Amino acid sequence: MKDMTIVLNKKIINKETNEVRLVVSIDEAERKIFSVPANEPDAEPTRMAAASFDRRWKLYEVTETTEAEALETTETEVPEMKMSDVVTKLEGLFDILNRVYFENALPKPVITVQSTPKAYGHCSTKKIWSNDTAGQYEINIGAEYLNRPSANTAATMCHEMVHLYCLVNDIADTCQKGRYHNKTFKAEAEARDLEIGYDRTIGYSLTEPTEAFKKTLEDNGFVLEVPFARVAPKPKAKAEREKAHKYVCPICGQEVKTTADLSLICGVCEVRMERAD
């Protein structure tokens, strides 16, 4: 070791035992290093020769930096998420879109975030939130897709608001129990700056925000940044069905199919049935 000062007041680690010590002083004239256990700063210092340090020890600085970085990462990598804030923003989004695209004519629904693994959202066809005197429709945003880009989530909200508009105005925008979206829905949605694509099974339902729609969101200061989405449950693996085999009466030909290994007697001929496969 040429420059002994590089270890002064630094931690060092034994290359063989991983013991960590703190260098508290050096004697350049005698080429000695004095250190204490890192976790016992008040202990009596131990002396070692500089040559011994070169053979058996190294600076602990890299390890300390790595630990600090790891701690910083741990503290910052998990963002905070409050569902109440998300729902409040979605309620504000409804108000923006209702004013811009529906002349404030839509009834205020209950906005929810629930699990809908097969859909970005839904609008109820009845007032499923009610008391003895009044009720409200529901618009839900799928929890599994909550962290999509802000404009896409807003487009889903507008998609469901088009359904609500058609519902309260007796406009038939779907068929096949609400699954298939017809050209009427497409026209109403595109009139609200949505881009609508076609799918053979669900019709004109695929929804994307247009640049005009994004500009509406920007002009009204809407941004929804959600760090998480609900993890979709994994589909259960279907168990393979065991293939049935056949028992046949050797006299009358009566057949029985089963997956079990059985010993069967024909009830007509009173003889043992034979397995045919």
The whole-angstrom Rg is 36 Å
Helix content: 25-40%
The assigned structural class equals: alpha+beta
Strand content: 15-25%
General shape: flat
The biggest beta sheet is recorded as: 5 strands, antiparallel
Strand order, largest beta sheet: 4-3-2-1-5
Q: Give the rounded overall mean pLDDT.
A: 88
In whole angstroms, the N-to-C terminal distance is 84 Å
Poorly predicted segments: none
Description:
There is one protein chain. With 277 residues, the chain is α+β, with helices and mostly antiparallel strands. Helix 3 (83-102) crosses helix 4 (150-168). The chain starts with 10 loop residues before the first strand and ends with a strand. The protein has six helices and 17 strands. The model has no long low-confidence stretch (mean pLDDT 88).
Write a brief caption for the model.
This protein is of the alpha+beta class. It is built from 6 helices and 17 strands. It has helices at residues 50-56, 61-76, 83-102, 150-168, 183-190, 211-219; strands at 11-14, 20-27, 32-37, 46-49, 57-59, 110-114, 121-123, 129-130, 135-136, 138-142, 174-175, 180-181, 194-199, 203-209, 245-248, 255-258, 274-275.
Strand and helix map with partners:
Elements: E1 11-14, E2 20-27, E3 32-37, E4 46-49, H1 50-56, E5 57-59, H2 61-76, H3 83-102, E6 110-114, E7 121-123, E8 129-130, E9 135-136, E10 138-142, H4 150-168, E11 174-175, E12 180-181, H5 183-190, E13 194-199, E14 203-209, H6 211-219, E15 245-248, E16 255-258, E17 274-275
